[in-house]
Specification:
- Helices cover 28% and strands 29% of the residues.
- α5 crosses α6.
- Bound molecules: NADP nicotinamide-adenine-dinucleotide phosphate.
Length: 327
């Protein structure tokens, strides 16, 4: 089915930047609904994820790295969920009305802080489990990044011990649940009492507060011969101290963007990586989610109009993710 003429003729509400800048640069505007090509789908967006990396994109730092000339108005939002409004002529996997979630980083057609988003059909997937639309919206990038780290980079095996540093954050709280499904024993280093409680609820075998507890002593008790592997989502002195609990021959993975970059002791492998956004990886993520009750923690949801407040909230302590609701 081709894009509907109705969608073509209309404009949409979006939070769009006229120039890169601070949270105040996020303004509601009316802009054209993006047009789709043969291999794309148009999603009527109901909720968008607010990524930990969105402020960097807002400030123009992605563009500095990629060298790609930005076009304004520039719509942020890597992650989102909603219903299929139209499909390109080569797309067979979806039909109008399907409930989907998708990720597209720095999408030249515009991101998910908008009523509509055009993405490659390969980047979209039916929503797994019984996730709400907000939960699905915040899931794709962090879910894919957690799974890439565990299965592709660390090659985590059943029975191994795993440290998750930043375990109550976006990637971390998903990584706990995925690692348990892969058969690992999880040592979660979360933030605050509420973070520790969340990590326990999500199945961590041991959870400690990385901002207060004696992490190394707890790690020694958990794995006297050292922990096999670590997935790290926050850097700094606390992180590097905790990583001394990884055993000789162990492995550490962290996604690009974690700053300061974690360091490993001699005899421990360390690798920075990017989350994979392929249909195969997303299918695997969906399969693991579908295999039992799965929690995606949405700490706060803001209306689209309050995107700037949502960005400010990223700097405050929170559990899991922050979402935007698009009315
Ligand atoms: N390259 C890629 O493909 C890719 C993809 C996704 C994300 N990323 C990057 O990966 C990083 C993590 O992403 P995310 O979405 O998981 O971010 P996030 O939600 O901010 O998670 C980081 C977590 O670490 C916690 N933390 C910080 N210091 C801690 C400590 N000493 N002890 C215990 N917990 C601590 C934070 O808690 P509090 O702040 O509440 O204390 C927060 O919950 C970001 O830099 C992001 O840009 C990269």
């Amino acid at each position: 089915m081709a894009q509907t003429s109705q969608a073509k003729a209309q404009t949409m509400r979006a939070v769009a930047l006229d120039k890169f800048g601070g949270p105040e640069a996020l303004k509601i505007q009316n802009i054209p609904i993006p047009e789709i090509e043969a291999q794309e789908v148009l999603i009527r967006v109901e909720a968008a994820g607010v990524g930990a990396w969105d402020p960097y994109e807002r400030e123009g730092r992605f563009v500095e790295i990629t060298g790609v000339e930005p076009t304004f108005p520039y719509v942020l939002g890597t992650d989102g969920a909603g219903t299929i409004a139209a499909v390109g002529k080569d797309v067979n996997r979806f039909k109008e009305g399907d409930r989907v979630y998708a990720a597209a980083l720095a999408n030249p057609k515009g991101g998910f802080y908008a009523q509509y988003a055009a993405v490659k059909a390969d980047n979209a997937s039916l929503i797994p489990g019984d996730l709400s639309i907000e939960q699905a919206a915040v899931l794709p990038t962090d879910g894919a990044t957690a799974l890439t780290g565990l299965e592709k980079v660390l090659k985590l095996k059943s029975g191994e011990s795993l440290m998750v540093f930043g375990a109550s954050g976006g990637i971390g709280h998903l990584a706990i649940q995925l690692a348990k499904r892969l058969g690992a024993k999880v040592f979660a280093i979360a933030s605050g009492d509420d973070g520790v409680q969340l990590a326990r609820k999500l199945g961590a075998d041991k959870a400690v507060d990385g901002r207060g507890d004696d992490v190394l002593e707890a790690a020694k008790e958990f794995a006297p011969n050292g922990i096999d592997a670590a997935l790290v989502t926050a850097g700094g002195a606390d992180t590097d101290r905790a990583l001394s609990a990884i055993r000789q021959g162990g492995r550490i993975a962290y996604p690009h963007g974690v700053m300061p970059e974690p360091t490993a002791h001699d005899g421990v492998e360390i690798e920075a990586y990017d989350g994979e956004n392929s249909p195969a990886l997303i299918a695997r993520l969906n399969e693991l989610i579908d295999s039992g009750p799965f929690e995606v923690q949405v700490d706060r949801t803001f209306p689209l109009e309050e995107a700037s407040k949502a960005h400010e909230a990223l700097d405050e302590h929170h559990l899991g993710k922050i979402a935007l609701r698009i009315g």
